[in-house]
Amino acid sequence: MRSFSFICFVSMATALMMSSSWAEPEFPSAPHGCSDGSCYPATGNLLIGRAVNLSASSTCGLATPQSYCIVSHLQLSWENLICKRDSYDVLNNRRADRKQTTQWRVNNRNLHLSTFRPAAMIIERSADFGRTWRPYRYFAQNCSRTFPVVQPVGLRHINDVVCEERYSDIEPSTDGEVIYKVLDPAIHVKDPYSLDIQELLRITNLRINLTKLNTLGDDLLDRRSDVLQKYYYAIKELVVRGSCFCYGHASECAPVPGISAREQGMIHGRCVCKHNTEGLNCERCRDFHHDLPWSPAEAHDPHTCRECECHGHASSCHFDMAVYLATGNSSGGVCDQCLHNTMGRKCESCRPFYYKDPQRDLRDPQVCAPCDCDPVGSVEGGVCDGHTDLDSGQISGQCRCKTNVRGLRCDDCKEGFYGLSLSDPQGCQRDESQRESTAAHSGRASGRN
């Protein structure tokens, strides 16, 4: 089954596990929408439409029908209360148990029980699809005795893991409730859009670990098995509020391809990504938008993925951290497989034996023209200057000439030389007659003096 990321809020339930994708508080998107900073999808009950994702480590009546009783209704005949493995349609069944599933970003969790609330339980989260687990909150009737290494409630920081005694009393015997909010309203959060808060809310799986039953004490005095029939965990309703997790890069979510929207009000798991991001959770930059490193959006910075500048000569690019650091964190995009005889990080230069035509735009597919060097008067196999740089004396298209040869193509002897020849390593011979004429002219000039 495909997993997604959401953001959520929960209430409770042996080890009850829900696979999901994220959890976040009910943050409204900023007034600017997604243009100038982070944005977030609307929240809802993540369990609607996901009953098929819910699993439990121990369930009444799986092997054979079992009788049970309700403490507040002991006058009822036990024979009338049978727990058995009857199949039901999880898509159309309208009982509350159809809501018990998750893969989200979480804000709140509300758990309603038909029996005593647990004497001890743990709400746990996983952000790696169940490979590792971390506690959100411990609950116990007596925290110091049940979870001695966990600090009692008294949050100082939003990331603190504490034990709470408020929801573990034996009363009421039915319709008890456990409420947990990931972001405790008693703790001031300076920036609810910050990266550490987003990481706190992100989950792929949620597990509610019921570790100890509340009893009336008769189980200690009477060892008959039927005494225990009135003690069990029975969850009436589980609500997990949150939304799909998009790293602040989306304000809405759509159905995941191949997964039908089973019920009205279902929170979908595929982010409709903004800021040039893509992926189920907007977790990467779109193709050809790798000039900056991908980053989660923040309240006042969307961290938009920037398009690579390849001047129309490449169809893909990648991000290179070394290049990014070398440019002072300004640009890290590297174009892949430059076309049209171009090369360079941005396909901005011409390949050897080609030069940049000064009459053409850099984006022109014909901008790089082949060097047109005369093989008789040029050297280095006919290579030419790829571009004009007056500081270094380069002229675009200028071939490398033999010593006594000149011209853009190296096809003309310098003044005072003649006989351009392929076999002459200097290209041309000195014109001795012109040299003698010059010497004679100099002698006559000296005689007159």
Brief overview, please?
The chain is mainly beta.
Produce the secondary structure layout:
Elements: E1 6-9, E2 15-19, E3 44-45, E4 54-56, E5 66-67, E6 82-83, E7 105-113, E8 120-126, E9 134-140, H1 143-146, E10 163-164, E11 176-181, H2 195-201, E12 202-203, E13 205-212, H3 218-221, E14 235-244, E15 250-254, E16 270-273, E17 277-278, E18 284-285, E19 317-319, H4 321-326, E20 333-335, E21 342-343, E22 349-350, E23 354-356, E24 368-370, E25 405-406, E26 412-413, E27 417-418, E28 429-430, H5 432-448
Parallel strand pairs: 9-10
Antiparallel strand pairs: 1-12, 1-14, 2-4, 2-13, 3-14, 5-6, 7-11, 7-14, 8-9, 8-13, 15-16, 17-18, 19-20, 21-22, 23-24, 25-26, 27-28
Please identify the structural class as seen in this structure.
mainly beta
Number of strands: 28
The CATH topology of the largest domain is: Jelly Rolls
* Radius of gyration based on Cα positions: 38 Å
Unreliable spans: 1-32, 88-104
Q: Cα distance, first to last residue?
A: 106 Å
Query: What can be said about the biggest beta sheet?
Result: 6 strands, antiparallel
Name of the CATH superfamily of the largest domain? Galactose-binding domain-like
CATH class of the largest domain: Mainly Beta
Mean pLDDT: 81
Descriptive account of the structure:
With about 450 residues, the chain is mostly beta strands. The chain folds into two domains: about 5-270, Jelly Rolls; about 380-449, Tie2 ligand-binding domain fold (Beta Complex). About 10% of the residues lie in helices and about 25% in strands. The chain has helices spanning about 145, 195-200, 220, 320-325, 430-449, and strands at about 5-10, 15-20, 45, 55, 65, 80-85, 105-115, 120-125, 135-140, 165, 175-180, 200-205, 205-210, 235-245, 250-255, 270-275, 275-280, 285, 315-320, 335, 340-345, 350, 355, 370, 405, 410-415, 415-420, 430. The strands form ten sheets. Strands 1, 3, 7, 11, 12 and 14 form a six-stranded antiparallel sheet that branches. A six-stranded mixed sheet has the order 4-2-13-8-9-10, with no helix packed on it. Strands 5-6 form a two-stranded antiparallel ribbon. The longest helix is centred in the C-terminal third of the chain and has 17 residues, at about 430-449. The radius of gyration is 38 Å and the shape is rod-shaped. The chain starts with 5 loop residues before the first strand and ends with a helix. Residues about 1-30 and about 90-105 have low confidence and may be disordered. It is found in: Secreted, Extracellular space, Extracellular matrix, Basement membrane. Keywords: Basement membrane, Cell adhesion, Coiled coil, Disulfide bond, Extracellular matrix, Glycoprotein, Laminin EGF-like domain, Repeat, Secreted, Signal.
